[in-house]
Sequence to fold (235 residues):
Amino acid sequence: MFKKQLAALLAATAFVMPMVAHASGDHAHGDAAVAQAFIKEIQADQNAYAAAKGAAFFQELSKGQKPRATVVTCSDSRVHTSMLDKTPEGDLFMVRNIGNQLATAKGSVQYGVNHLASSLLLFIGHSSCGAIKAAGGDYSTLEEPIRKELDTINIAKGSANIEGVKANVNNQVAAALKDWDAQVKAGHLLVVGAVYDFSDDMKQGAGKLNIININGETDPAKLRNMPAPAAKAAH
Fold:
């Protein structure tokens, strides 16, 4: 099994080279042998997926997409569609970048909302976020393209990671509301901010998706009592 092979490899290399801090500007390195094993596992899993879904499933997908949600989430490998939707194909238009930002992926988000007519624009931050940790500290030694993406994360320096995560999510919702104000007011779009909290930093349960912002409203009591708008006719 690949996971066992990877664990053994990592254990061996731990004695050879020390752990490096990414924020210092040092680089970690992968291993081509690990990649060769992993691509075989990916192919096997994908073949099993295709066989389980069947040809009719893919024929339906080939007709086009009408995703109900455009989702902007972090590139972090711990954050995936499987925790949002059992059947994400054709349902979630996924946009991923470090820090789950609008500014660094605006064209993709515009495409999902303006051209695919998603009814929900969902920003998802997550606990233990490396981008938030970096943006809240000194990232001057990182590569210029990474610094450029971190520059658009506006959070207080030195704040607790989860507080920075929540502040960043609220900032993304606020930015989106400026761009899609008319659609929100007309009832065509809902802009939501959430935190996928696998570390249980918010003490609401490990692995829970916590909604912290709906169309700019962040008061927890008001969020719990917000009435659901009536669904409009299909676009």
